[in-house]
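Reply to dn_fold:

You asked what the input looked like. This is it:
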Amino acid sequence: MKLELTGRPFVAFDATNKLHREYYAQFVREQTWGKCPVRFVVPDDFGDLITMIQRQLVTWYVENEFPQKPARRGRKKNPTGRSGMLKNG
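and this is what came back:
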């Protein structure tokens, strides 16, 4: 009982929280959670802590690196960059 009262607090990992990302980076460098001031909780549907954190970080980085652009209206560009017309000769 005393251990629960004085132990590290339980926290849900949040990839948008810079401190949480720093705690994970420290874990990656040192291969231990020993210096982490919190204990991350894992919902039943995620399996394990590391996989959960990695999935959330990948989602967060992709959304920040490649933000959604508003849809453009009008003619669609040809993804190949070709005009569709063949050259003679």
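The radius of gyration is 23 Å.
Hope that clears it up.
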